[in-house]
Design a protein that fits this description.
With 475 residues, the chain is α/β, with parallel strands linked by helices. 37% of the residues lie in helices and 14% in strands. Strand 7 (258-261), helix 8 (272-287) and strand 8 form a beta-alpha-beta unit.
């Protein structure tokens, strides 16, 4: 092998394990050694787990006995975002509120990965309760971008993205509420995917926005992302929002794609480097035989505003249980009211408190009609507009972000931080699957920073998304 074991993709590692060129133990040791060496500088992991000797031995035995019949993820070391429960491990959602919470059961996605023989290197850093676009809002410290440690890795799944990009694991899971997998994937040079809402169980994922959240893969290639997605997808009796395959009309994967481009939404806020890379990528796709078609999505210009009404409303509801009395950190006061005030003030960081307050406001009497219900109505219009656009195109393309990774503290104004999600939130509002793929780099400060192109497809058309990813990044 010309690569170090921890630098392999899932496919490469699986082949090496089956060919006897690599052992599960050697692969695990390489990933953990890299994680222990680089994590002090990057802070991708909140915790690196000790080796599970039984799981490592069982994975090796399974590969030896089953060979090509063993799941591709058998023996593969993965990183898991800190809001996905692993039985017996802390799951803090990077918050002081859950700093000492130890999971009593496995999330459904973890159960599925364990059945496939996957191994878990550790739990990764994130924005507190997944609220942020930079992983600066973790209660335990910020994660650094491996391409330039002066810059953010994106968020909220920034720890998972940094771990994969720095080869501290083979692949990872994150969660995506408004772009929290796709945006860090773009800023770290990875493939990141948000599945169709309900394609992957949310059981055992600490909720932020229940109608928006989805667990998904962060990987080095589109093929790896598809392997992870196929392993975790499926209807789950523990999550009533999961959907069976075939609920939506079948989508055949065409040999050449019809790619919709909403040029009317690509305003002056795009940096020159992102616009140039986006145009160049589209030209390459056109030259390869794919059709580029203009599409109109007029309500998408209001998607961000609708998202930042609906999401805080769901945050306010979901985090109400974390009051120090029922669940979470407890700080005693002189009265019962003081108990609540001290517990939530000490337990939650500034961004989380901001969103709880905003959500409580938009749900309050006298304002729910003016804000929340109008935002929810706009969500329905967005779904209809995308459905109409998909009558003539297979995928819709945007840049994933407005610019390459920004420096720490650059987006101290909350509004400027929220604008980082402008191209990604629509997929969460509509429930459609979306994916970010690397599309070149931009030079900043003597470093080459990754950029991403973003594709959205109809419900349950993940196969079409992966075809678009392979068109941009041929294997």
């Amino acid at each position: 092998m010309s690569k170090k074991p921890n630098e392999l993709t899932i496919i490469e590692a699986a082949r090496a394990l089956r060919a006897g060129e690599l052992t599960v133990r050697a692969l695990w040791d390489a990933c953990v050694a890299a994680a222990e060496a680089k994590n002090p500088a990057l802070f991708a992991y909140l915790e690196i787990f000790p080796a599970d000797e039984a799981a490592i031995a069982e994975a090796q035995k399974r590969i030896d006995e089953e060979g090509e019949r063993a799941p591709l993820l058998c023996g593969i070391p993965l990183a898991i975002k800190d809001n996905i429960l692993i039985e017996g491990k802390i799951a803090s959602a990077a918050s002081r509120m859950l700093e000492n919470y130890t999971a009593t059961y496995d999330a459904t996605v973890i159960s599925k990965l364990k059945e496939a023989g996957a191994l878990f290197v550790g739990r990764t850093n994130m924005d507190e309760f997944a609220m942020g676009s930079s992983t600066e809002h973790s209660a335990f410290g910020a994660t650094k971008n491996p391409h330039d440690t002066k810059r953010v890795p994106g968020g909220s799944s920034g720890g998972s993205a940094a771990a994969v990009a720095a080869h501290l694991c083979i692949a990872a899971l994150g969660t995506d509420t408004g772009g929290s997998i796709r945006q860090p994937a773009a800023l770290c040079g990875l493939v990141g995917m948000k599945p169709t809402y309900g394609a992957v169980s949310r059981s055992g994922a600490i909720a932020m926005g229940s109608s928006l959240d989805q667990i998904g893969p962060l990987a080095k290639t589109a093929q790896d992302a598809q392997i992870l997605f196929d392993a975790i997808r499926g209807k789950d009796p523990l999550d009533s929002t999961t959907i069976p395959d075939g609920l939506y009309p079948a989508h055949e994967v065409p040999k050449t794609l019809r790619i919709g481009v909403p040029r009317h939404l690509l305003g002056e806020s795009l940096t020159a480097e992102v616009r140039a890379a986006f145009d160049t990528t589209l030209e390459k796709l056109s030259a390869a035989g794919h059709a580029l078609l203009d599409v109109e999505l007029p309500t998408s210009g209001h998607a961000l505003a609708a998202y930042y009404v609906i999401m805080p409303a769901e945050v306010s509801t979901n985090l109400a249980r974390l009051d120090g009395i029922r669940y979470g950190r407890f700080a005693e006061g002189d009265t019962l009211l003081d108990d609540y005030l001290h517990s939530r003030t000490e337990g939650f960081g500034p961004e989380t408190r901001r969103r709880i307050l905003l959500g409580t406001f938009v749900l309050s009497s006298g304002y729910i009609d003016a804000y929340y219900r109008k935002a929810d109505a706009a969500r329905g219009v967005l779904r209809d507009e995308y459905a109409k656009a998909f009558e003539k195109v297979d995928v819709i393309a945007f840049p994933t972000t407005l610019a390459p990774a920004f420096t720490f503290g650059e987006k101290s104004d909350p509004i400027s931080m929220y604008l980082e999600d402008i191209f990604t939130v629509t997929a969460n509002l509509t429930g459609m699957p979306a994916l970010s793929v690397p599309m070149g780099t931009a030079a900043r400060g003597g470093k080459e920073l990754p950029l991403g192109i973003h594709f959205t497809a109809p419900h349950q058309a993940e196969a079409v998304l992966f075809a678009a990813a392979r068109a941009v990044l041929p294997a």
